[in-house]
């Protein structure tokens, strides 16, 4: 679930994939639809997959289940396209709908560049010669502004450490853009929209195995503040999605937030643990276990540990918080 929320932070539209050989909705389907609603994605396409494995009557029956499931939700009225990914049936219809029916959002090219990192890599092969080593690569989507080859960049929060007194310190990473890639295409500059790979001079061990996920990359000195505590205006779901009560008949209700409770917070592409410091009506003060580079009005998804799984329980919006100054 956390992975899906991290990816949804940079999406303009959503494809909700439903297996045709299973009843609808499955627990994960309910959670993903709720996540789409949290991220306020308006352009939604529902794909009824694996229709090659079922009879026509079963496909029609599930189609009715899907329509009932999405009624009065953000996906109400979204087209349902029967497909077979294995046989590539109706894939052309999906492509046509995306190209012709989903509008390209208005992009901001004039603001300072800001990219949310959702992947990071070490592209060097084991045993590579020192002279041929390449810097780490950060992958993500540009939210605003334009990145160009040779630009000086900053990555926040950067390297997070604690001093002898247990106080958190953040040291941003400074580097230069060496390469820009979209798929296999080399670019001289990159604009908002699509996924971009940014080649840098950053130590590749820092970028290895997605270690930069959740960081924000952009122009030096122009990135949002680093928060250790946030105050949010939150909304809880009425019921837990995909979790049955002990009698197995109906979904259990979402319990109210409790002081000192440990939750999982998703802010942009950042997933971090957090502790509830105080709750008053629909306002909560939360301490983050890992500092996050974010800003006021940013969306926050909240998950609670239930039966060894993190389950989505609600979402909120940052109203203010406690920031720390980075060590430069």
Structure, explained:
By secondary structure, this protein is mainly β. Helix content is 15%, strand content 44%. The protein has three domains: 2-101, 3-Layer(aba) Sandwich (Rossmann fold), CATH 3.40.50; 114-219, Elongation Factor Tu (Ef-tu), domain 3 (Beta Barrel), CATH 2.40.30.10; 226-324, Beta Barrel (Elongation Factor Tu (Ef-tu), domain 3), CATH 2.40.30. The strands form five sheets. Strands 8-7-13-4-5-12-9-10 form an eight-stranded antiparallel beta sheet, with no helix packed on it. The protein has a six-stranded antiparallel barrel with strand order 14-19-18-17-20-21. Strands 1-2-3 form a three-stranded parallel beta sheet, with helices on one face.
Number of distinct helices: 5
Query: CATH class of the largest domain, anyone?
Result: Mainly Beta
User: Into how many domains do the coordinates divide?
Assistant: 3
- Percentage of helical residues? 10-25%
Major beta sheet, strand line-up: 8-7-13-4-5-12-9-10
CATH topology-level fold name of the largest domain: Elongation Factor Tu (Ef-tu), domain 3
Poorly predicted segments: none
Oligomer: single chain
Structural class: mainly beta
CATH architecture of the largest domain: Beta Barrel
The fourth-level CATH homologous superfamily of the largest domain is Translation factors
Number of strands: 21
Task: Give the C-alpha Rg.
Answer: 22 Å
Mean pLDDT: 91
Strand content is 35-45%
Q: Which word captures the global form?
A: globular
Largest sheet: 8 strands, antiparallel
Query: H/E order of the elements?
Result: HEHEHEHEEEEEEEEEHEEEEEEEEE
State the separation between the terminal residues, measured CA to CA: 35 Å
């Amino acid at each position: 679930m956390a992975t899906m929320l991290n990816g949804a932070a940079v999406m303009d539209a959503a494809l909700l994939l439903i297996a045709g050989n299973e009843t609808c909705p499955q627990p994960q389907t309910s959670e993903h639809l709720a996540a789409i609603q949290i991220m306020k994605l308006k352009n939604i396409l529902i794909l009824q997959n694996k229709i090659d494995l079922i009879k026509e009557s079963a496909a029609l029956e599930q189609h009715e289940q899907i329509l009932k499931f999405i009624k009065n939700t953000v996906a109400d009225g979204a087209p349902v396209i029967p497909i077979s990914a294995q046989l590539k049936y109706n894939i052309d219809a999906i492509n046509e709908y995306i190209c012709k029916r989903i509008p390209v959002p208005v992009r901001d090219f004039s603001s300072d560049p800001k990219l949310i990192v959702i992947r990071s890599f070490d592209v060097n092969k084991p045993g590579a010669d020192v002279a041929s080593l390449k810097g780490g690569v950060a992958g993500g989507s540009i939210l605003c502004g334009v990145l160009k080859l040779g630009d000086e960049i900053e990555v926040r929060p950067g390297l997070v450490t604690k001093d002898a007194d247990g106080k958190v310190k953040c040291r941003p990473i400074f580097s230069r853009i060496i390469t820009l890639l979209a798929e296999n295409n080399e670019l001289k500059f990159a604009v908002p929209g699509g996924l971009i790979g940014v080649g840098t001079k950053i130590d590749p061990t820092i970028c290895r195995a997605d270690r930069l996920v959740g960081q924000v990359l952009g122009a030096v000195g122009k990135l949002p503040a680093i928060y250790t505590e946030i105050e949010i205006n939150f909304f809880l779901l009425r019921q837990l999605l995909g979790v049955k009560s002990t009698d197995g008949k109906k979904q259990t209700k979402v319990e109210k937030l409790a002081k000192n409770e440990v939750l999982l917070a998703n802010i942009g592409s950042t997933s971090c643990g957090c502790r509830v410091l105080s709750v008053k009506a629909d306002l909560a003060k939360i301490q983050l276990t890992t500092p996050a580079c974010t800003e006021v009005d940013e969306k926050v998804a909240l998950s609670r540990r239930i039966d060894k799984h993190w389950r989505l329980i609600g979402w909120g919006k940052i109203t203010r918080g406690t920031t720390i100054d980075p060590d430069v």
